[in-house]
Amino acid sequence: MKSFGYAAQSKTSPLTPFHFDRREPGPTDVVVAIDYCGICHSDIHQARDEWGGSIYPMVPGHEIVGRVTAVGSDVKKFKVGDLAGVGVTVQTCMACDNCKSGNEPYCTKGMVGTYNAKDYDGNPTYGGYADNIVAPEHYVHSISPKLNLAAVAPLLCAGITTWSPLKHWNVGPNKKVGIVGLGGLGHMGLKFAHSLGAYTVQFTTSESKTNDALKLGANEVVISKDPENMAKHTGSFDFILDCVSAPHDINAYLNLLKLDGTLCLVGLPEQPMLTSPFALITNRRSFSGSMIGGMKETQEMLDYCAAKNIVSDIELISYAQLPEAYERVLKSDVKYRFVLDGKTLTA
Ligand code: NAP
Ligand code: ZN
């Protein structure tokens, strides 16, 4: 299947127009014409090979929404014209215990990412900075027409990546929850923690984001560069979700957890981060991590968003603005997710 999009040819090259082929859709596949694609910080990490092992040419993008243009003969959930979304995962073994329990990102054979991966036949996968995508029905999600479609796109990664750990650690009423970093993931974590009924504290290095954080649902905002402000919260949190993209002192957050509290990392800085054994044994604290979310819980999150009218706060941009958008993400200067407008993609 012919596709057109934007690709990085190497870790130092800017993203440029790129014609490529996707596999022809099979009986279980859905073809989606892409209307919008969010820009995740992971796109930048991978385009610039910050995690190592990047595969080029790379078409990034795993926050994909659009309309179904074709379905294979065995497809049951979708028909042509339906709204649909594709996130971070496009193939898993479906046979291991983790897949069978709805934990596809933890597939023991290895989950195949929407881009910068090879599928089980060895073919490279290409993401959503493009005009179309083909994916098996199992990894395609139904989207409610009630919501602004462009603002739904970031739910496919930033949404599910924050929703999954908040649900896993039972965030809700009578829980004090911290969200670290007010970016794409962080602002969705903040909206969800607030909506689920938790007392929510936003940590940020950007004082200028304070009013936004309060509007997005924070009960309190803490400027994390101020040790006195941080110390006021020592030993008080049930759960903290760390959404920061760069190396930082995680012990400062471990110290804020109460007895049996958990700090969960979803941010993926390229360097290891050291934990203090004393910060961990005090209050029997747990330090954990979480990766996107399963297919069933992704649909549950999308349905919850439709019911509660929750979407991402976005800046809709053209493909010509891609280089500027990457630079602004690196400066933590986005409110709060860039979304590429498919109408501006011209061959
Ligand atoms: P983003 O929009 O760039 O947000 C990151 C935020 O981190 C910034 O807005 C900033 O918040 C804070 N920050 C940045 N540099 C910092 C520094 N040096 N010290 C302290 N805070 C800093 O990125 P994103 O798209 O939300 O992604 C966040 C991270 O999650 C990335 O590493 C990404 O790869 C990862 N990720 C993981 C998963 C997963 O499955 N676990 C899925 C998607 C993304 P303030 O201005 O508020 O301080
Ligand atoms: Zn992402």
3D architecture notes:
- This protein is α/β, with parallel strands linked by helices and 347 residues long.
- The chain folds into two domains: 2-157 and 313-344, Alpha-Beta Complex (Quinone Oxidoreductase, Chain A, domain 1); 159-289, Rossmann fold (3-Layer(aba) Sandwich).
- Helices cover 24% and strands 26% of the residues.
- It has helices at 41-47, 97-100, 149-152, 158-168, 184-195, 210-216, 227-231, 251-254, 277-281, 295-308, 322-330; strands at residues 2-7, 16-21, 29-38, 64-71, 83-86, 89-91, 112-113, 132-136, 140-142, 176-180, 199-204, 220-223, 237-242, 257-265, 286-289, 314-317, 337-341.
- The mean pLDDT is 97.
- Bound molecules: NADP nicotinamide-adenine-dinucleotide phosphate and zinc ion (ZN).
- Zinc ion binds at residues 40, 42, 62, 88, 157.
Helix-strand pattern, N to C? Answer: EEEHEEEHEEEHHEHEHEHEHEHEHEHE
Class computed from helices, strands and strand pairing: alpha/beta
CATH architecture of the largest domain: Alpha-Beta Complex
- Average per-residue pLDDT, rounded, comes to 97
Shape: globular
How would you sum up the major sheet?
7 strands, mixed
Unreliable stretches:
none
Number of strands: 17
Strand content: 25-35%
CATH topology of the largest domain: Quinone Oxidoreductase, Chain A, domain 1
The helix content, as a percent range, equals: 10-25%
Taking Cα atoms only, what radius of gyration do you get, to the nearest Å? 20 Å
Spell out the blueprint of helices and strands:
Blueprint: E1 2-7, E2 16-21, E3 29-38, H1 41-47, E4 64-71, E5 83-86, E6 89-91, H2 97-100, E7 112-113, E8 132-136, E9 140-142, H3 149-152, H4 158-168, E10 176-180, H5 184-195, E11 199-204, H6 210-216, E12 220-223, H7 227-231, E13 237-242, H8 251-254, E14 257-265, H9 277-281, E15 286-289, H10 295-308, E16 314-317, H11 322-330, E17 337-341
Parallel strand pairs: 10-11, 10-13, 11-12, 13-14, 14-15, 16-17
Antiparallel strand pairs: 1-2, 3-4, 3-8, 3-17, 4-5, 5-9, 6-7
Helix pairs in contact: 4-5, 4-10
The chain binds NADP nicotinamide-adenine-dinucleotide phosphate and zinc ion.
